Amino acid sequence: MSQASAAAAIATPEAAPRRLRSSFLLPVLSGIGGLLLWELAVHAFALPSYLLPAPSEVMVVMVEKWRLLLDQLQYTALAAVVGFVIALVISIVLGALIAASPAVERVIYVWLVVFHAIPKVVVAPLLLVWIGFGLQSSIIFVVVFTFFPMLVNTVTGLRSADPELLLVTRSMGGTTWQTLRAIRLPSAMPSIIAGIKISITLAPLGAVIGEFVASNKGLGHMLIQSVGSLEVPTAFAAVVVVSILGILTWYLAEWLERVAIPWHASQRGRAAE
């Protein structure tokens, strides 16, 4: 089939319902089927709610405590957003410095790898001592969780620029900043966006773990308290809300990818599906 006939087939009216089914209906049906199996398993094995509540019970709790969940979600989302933005700025600036200067890489990169290798849960009590109790600790935890994948992808992307284009730019007297802005950064965008997609779903996780040890608000604090008092349906409700936040951030990254790099092969291929 030629490219023209393939494009015509994609543009037919029958193609739109197929795309809708594959992108929306099938995931929804899969989720509903999983919830039904969960509900049936709880009732079939007569599991008590303090071990595994049924989805219907979790839904009832979410309806009854929606104001509390929303209030705690705002606190967690604020920590996740602020921490992620800080991590994004740090990763792009450091990535540009490392990609531009081998000396900077030799001095900084090894320490960044060592810092990333330290288990984050081990650092949590130290952050409580160094930074204190409250929102700032959750923000720092989000930064710690999210900046390294974005840094690695930024460095990889900035170094993947076409050497011939770099040579032409230098031969025409282009400065390091001009080369970075005109050549390296555009070619690095797919890699940077991939790092953002990896890290953005870690932002709510970092915020929740920070709230485990250094906060008296947020979904993480609510989760710990609910488990401690054996209010497991409430704990599941908090987990569901955190999961929804993670899903929304993922689709936000997907939208950013479509807007930022519509010219990339991955986006052209997606448009043709």
UniProtKB/TrEMBL annotation:
InterPro entries reported for this sequence: MetI-like, MetI-like_sf
GO biological-process terms attached to the record: transmembrane transport
Subcellular location per the Swiss-Prot or TrEMBL entry: Cell membrane
Protein name as it appears in the record: NitT/TauT family transport system permease protein
Keywords of the record: Cell membrane, Membrane, Transmembrane, Transmembrane helix, Transport
Domain ABC transmembrane type-1 stretches: 73-253
Family designation: Belongs to the binding-protein-dependent transport system permease family.
Organism lineage string: Bacteria, Pseudomonadati, Pseudomonadota, Alphaproteobacteria, Acetobacterales
One cellular component (GO) term of this entry: plasma membrane
Organism: Muricoccus roseus
Transmembrane annotation, as ranges: 24-52, 72-100, 107-133, 139-158, 191-214, 234-253
